[in-house]
Amino acid sequence: MSSSEIVAVVPVRAGSKGLPNKNIMDFNGLPLYMRTVLQALRVTKKVIISTDIEGIIQTKLPKECIIDKRPKYLS
């Protein structure tokens, strides 16, 4: 299987109870979710970000990324 056949799915939800907003917090210069996306892009050419966070939906992302706007009831 080649990397062009693999799709990474990165689920990012807003409702963290332990550390609120942890997925969008800056971690050494990048939001936590973006670190995951960049790691996924090292092994595949397509990443789907499934999220209910408007800030991520509105963000300019790498061209290999697709946003799946997930309804809150599924998060």
Descriptive notes:
By secondary structure, the chain is an alpha/beta fold. The protein has 2 helices and 5 strands. 19% of the residues lie in helices and 28% in strands. The protein has a 3-stranded parallel beta sheet with strand order 1-4-5. It has a two-stranded antiparallel sheet with strand order 2-3. Helix 2 (54-57) links the parallel strand 4 (46-51) and strand 5 (65-69). The longest helix is centred in the middle third of the chain and has 10 residues, at 32-41. The termini are far apart. The mean pLDDT is 90.
Mean pLDDT, as a whole number? 90
Helix content: 10-25%
Beta-strand fraction estimate = 25-35%
**Helix/strand class:** alpha/beta
Count every beta strand, where a strand is a DSSP E run of 2 or more residues: 5
Q: What low-confidence regions span 5 or more consecutive residues with pLDDT below 50?
A: none
Main beta sheet, described? 3 strands, parallel
Span of the ends, CA to CA:
31 Å
Order of helices and strands: EEEHEHE
What spatial form do the alpha-carbon principal axes imply? Answer: globular
Radius of gyration: 13 Å
Please state how the strands of the largest beta sheet are arranged side by side. Answer: 1-4-5
- Counting DSSP H or I runs of 4 or more residues, the number of helices is 2
